[in-house]
């Protein structure tokens, strides 16, 4: 059975002082939880060293929200995957819709970044998902298929051990409008079938596929009960310890 993963994407929130406070609350709240899956928090880069000290020795994992494609050199403002690994990260989010939209990152960059993450020993969390207009036009599956096809077959060392997928319909991110469990499951099943074609049946069966978009403690149980939803990528709700812990508990209960 696939292990669950709940990843908290803090986005551009919580500098070192606030990050330490929140990480401590999450760590302490999870002490009582028999995880049976993974829980990950992804603070802004500048807060990683402080949060690393807080989560050391706990089952809480540390991740980053982006990495550079290059390993080092003249790339002002960028952070290499190897540096994130050195700072204690085990995971890195790639291709979040906000970066697709605001930084206009492309498939070629996603491939290079995922390869860089793998070379540094990090697990890549590759995000994909359609816009509201694309869903309304009946193009959700075509868009998702194109996003997966444009990246996954080109990754050098793609495996369920080093890659997690995250379906995040853009219309559900930060809007409070979650995809219904049925809609999410339908898209996850579609993505898993596409993955089987692109990476093989075995990889598709073993790779974790997270749902992201207004996941909360109150809706996580129904989402994670779906057979192809292996956990969540959580934005807003990961900024509140009690909410995030509730979501981690829901993931545990779903695969108990
Ligand atoms: P949200 O964000 O949970 O606030 O909708 C999810 C994400 O952007 O990863």
Tell me about this structure.
This protein is of the alpha/beta class and about 260 residues long. The protein has helices at about 15-30, 50-55, 80-85, 95-100, 105-120, 130-135, 140-150, 180-200, 200-205, 215-225, 240-255, and strands at about 5-10, 35-40, 60-65, 90-95, 125-130, 165, 210, 230-235. It has one domain (about 5-235): Alpha-Beta Barrel (TIM Barrel), CATH 3.20.20. The chain has an 8-stranded parallel β-barrel, surrounded by 7 helices. Helix 3 links the parallel strand 3 and strand 4 (about 90-95). The chain is globular and about 45 Å long. The model has no long low-confidence stretch (mean pLDDT about 95). 2-phosphoglycolic acid (PGA) binds near residues 233 and 237.
Tell me the name of the CATH class.
Alpha Beta
Roughly how many Å is the radius of gyration? 17 Å
Which of globular, elongated, flat, extended, rod-shaped describes the shape?
Answer: globular
- Distance between termini? 11 Å
Structural class label:
alpha/beta
The largest sheet is: 8 strands, parallel, barrel
Task: Give a list of the ligands.
Answer: 2-phosphoglycolic acid
Order of adjacent strands in the largest pleated sheet: 1-2-3-4-5-6-7-8
User: What percentage of residues falls in helices of 4 or more residues?
Assistant: 40-55%
Mean pLDDT: 97
**H-E string:** EHEHEHEHHEHHEHHEHEH
| Unreliable stretches covering 5 or more consecutive residues | none
Q: What is the number of helices? A: 11
- Proportion of residues in extended strands: 15-25%
Could you say what the CATH architecture is? Alpha-Beta Barrel
What is the CATH third-level topology name?
TIM Barrel
- Multimeric state of these chains? single chain
**Can you identify the CATH superfamily?**
Aldolase class I
Number of strands: 8
Structurally, the number of domains stands at 1
């Amino acid at each position: 059975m696939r292990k669950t993963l709940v990843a908290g994407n803090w986005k551009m929130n919580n500098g070192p002082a606030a990050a330490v406070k929140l990480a401590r609350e999450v760590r302490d709240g999870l002490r009582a939880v028999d995880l049976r899956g993974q829980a990950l928090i992804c603070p802004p880069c500048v807060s990683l060293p402080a949060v690393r000290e807080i989560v050391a020795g706990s089952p809480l994992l540390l991740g980053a929200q982006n990495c550079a494609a290059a390993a080092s050199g003249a790339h002002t403002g960028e952070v290499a995957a190897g540096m994130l690994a050195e700072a204690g990260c085990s995971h890195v989010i790639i291709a979040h819709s906000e970066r697709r939209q605001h930084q206009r990152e492309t498939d070629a960059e996603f491939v290079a970044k995922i390869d860089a993450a793998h070379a540094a020993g990090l697990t890549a969390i590759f995000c994909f998902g359609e816009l509201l207009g694309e869903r309304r036009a009946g193009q959700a599956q075509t868009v998702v298929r194109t996003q997966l096809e444009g990246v996954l077959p080109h990754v050098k060392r793609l495996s369920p051990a080093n890659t997690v997928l995250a379906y995040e319909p853009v219309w559900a991110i930060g809007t409070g409008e979650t995809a219904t469990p049925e809609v999410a499951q339908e898209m996850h099943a579609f993505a898993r079938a596409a993955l089987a074609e692109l990476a093989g049946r075995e990889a598709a069966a073993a790779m974790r596929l997270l749902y992201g978009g207004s996941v909360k403690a109150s809706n996580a149980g129904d989402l994670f009960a779906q057979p192809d939803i292996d956990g969540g990528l959580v934005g807003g709700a990961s900024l509140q310890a009690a909410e995030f812990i509730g979501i981690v508990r829901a993931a545990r209960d779903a695969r108990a």
